[in-house]
Prior knowledge:
With about 450 residues, the chain is α/β, with parallel strands linked by helices. It is built from 14 helices and 18 strands.
Amino acid sequence: MRKARIGIVCTVRKTFDYLTAFKLYQQRTAQVMEDTSVEWVNYPEMVIEEAEAEKAGLYFVDQHVDALIIVSATFHLGHLALVLNRVVRKPLLLWGYDELPYDGGKIRLNAVCGVNLNASNLFKAGNDNYIVHVGNTIDEDWVKAIKMMVVLKSARVGLVGYHADGFFNVGVDELHTYQELGILIKHYELSELFGGEADEKEVAEEKEVVLKTFNVNKLNEHQVDAVAKLIVLAKHFQQREAMDVIAIRCWPEFAKCYGVSPCAMMSVLQSRGILFACEGDVEAALSMVAVRAAGEATPFMADLSQVNYQENYALLWHDGVAPCNLWDGRCVRSLETYFAGGKGVTADFVLKEGPMSIFRIDTARGKTRVFYEEGVAVPMDKLLSGTYAKVIFNHHIEQVIDTVVYTGVAHHVIMGYVQYAKAMRYLARIMQWEVIDVSGNRF
Length: 443
């Protein structure tokens, strides 16, 4: 998956201390460009006049930037941001530096006023696709939002089978998804994932991984071999098709047609960063891609499963698909066969504790929304099958549930051990998506 490509340009006016401002710009941009997770495109000259802004804009177009940072190093002409916006037509960060100490009573930068000018001009011209930031270091949340935007717009998404039987709420309008993101979902049959032969040596190697990772006392030899083979087949399918994330109709046919369900395979491969969404949920798959861009290498697709209003907690649970690296390190990490009439072969363990969040991109009634909440995963004993975390959210669990059910959010959320509320709101503003707030007042 490609990196975000972000342009950065310095705007100034000679009536202010523009030479000092440009030196500051060069120093701070050098610091920004130390972040190699982004491809930075730095315009090397100051932009002072309208024609220079036109030239800079064309430079960024040629460089195919995904977003542009317009630095108000000092106050400047109001033309500059408008011209850059007209030419580049990408999300903008309007960045103004903190004021320098006064020199003989004269204001030296007046950068914040420049940001104010740019924001007012853009807003009154009908452009909401900007974020304002004041300070001497870059807004990392905006950068994170741009990373999320880029991976969503460039994601290669595979759908193997269809959504699970009766899960109409996770179906997608593919042309709406194309309209929003410009991506096309690639369809496959289940047999294309698990059909074919696997190299015996590679299967044996993956079997060793399974045996070292899980207690398999409840499985027979055939089931362990089937899991190992499926890991190889799925791994090569993902590599061959170059998919960033794959949504699978994992029941009811999968176990019957292959012999075991894909849950254990998904747990193993997701711990290596190969993303799978359960039950054919394409928007959950897209959400996983976004959460990874926000910083969680191995996100977990979970149900808001069991809640306790009196003790204010929830279980984020699913049928044994959580990446096995998220194990709490204390319970017995095992494979279970309770699902699909004994053919389930799901991973069973408690997830680790720590600050966490849940996120979902969700479409309803023709609108795309984002749902987000933060909290903390707390320790618990291994009391049931599947993979799960006990979570206390920042809002009371009753408020969280009321928000989900009265806004129609689908029953899958993406859990990660990163928190990115501001970046999520930036992403929603950039994409013009509604943010679903946990308020507790839905009537």
